[in-house]
Amino acid sequence: MNLRKPRRDSDILLSNIAHKELLFKFLVIGDYGVGKTALVRRYTEGRFTSNYKITIGADFAIKAVDWDRFTKINLQLWDVAGHERFGYMTRVYYKYAVAAALVFDISRIATFQSIKKWLSDLREKVTFPDGSEIPVVLLANKCDIPCPVVPSEQIAKFCKENNIGAWYVTSAKENTNIDVAMRYLVENVLKTKIDVDIRDSVRLRDNSKIRKRSECCKL
């Protein structure tokens, strides 16, 4: 005997209303050759290769994340070419971004020294509608290379002085801390007090399909 209660139309309607599908644009920025494309590929495609073409301008890739039983988040990761720093076009690439990953090569001190300028450029051009700063994470990339030249104490000090909430050593080759870093950004975007209209503007329509545009940078 089947004692299961039949599902009512109202139950189906409530289930559909409760389900949210969101689109968040994340920036991945830093100097040329720090491994941005490789990090993005590892995160969105689950693969690594050391052979990447130089990113020209900007590119993006999409990662769909089932955040909880009611929420699906589509992360659009924008990889901005290193030589685009401070150029006019960065304002176009940064538009609508709600979080950013700053990337440097832990084996090259010059790429770490450039992070301050990348951060200043970002904060000058991107804020939430209320003027507050978007969440930022710092990625000390290529931790698989022996003998890093940027000490952890220096990285931690930089983050504290510049109001960066978290930093991680990462490696696309060994898939180290990439998921953790992106989860940190998502959690902090969800915690921000974004105006309801802004949230609605990034919510996807039911059954909409996002077409993935190729490549993104990183190692």
Automatic annotation (TrEMBL):
Output the InterPro entries linked to this UniProt entry: P-loop_NTPase, Rab29/Rab38/Rab32, Small_GTP-bd, Small_GTPase
Any one of the GO BP annotations: phagosome-lysosome fusion
Taken from the UniProt entry, a GO cellular component term is: membrane
Q: What is its main location?
A: membrane
Q: How does it sit in the membrane?
A: Lipid-anchor
* Molecular function via GO: GTP binding; GTPase activity
Keyword annotations for this protein, in alphabetical order, are: GTP-binding, Lipoprotein, Membrane, Nucleotide-binding, Prenylation
A Pfam family recorded for this sequence? Ras
Subcellular location, in the record's words? Membrane
| Family as reported in the entry's similarity comment | Belongs to the small GTPase superfamily. Rab family.
Known function:
The small GTPases Rab are key regulators in vesicle trafficking.
Q: What is this protein called?
A: Ras-related protein Rab
The record lists the organism as Bombus terrestris
Taxonomy of origin reads: Eukaryota, Metazoa, Ecdysozoa, Arthropoda, Hexapoda
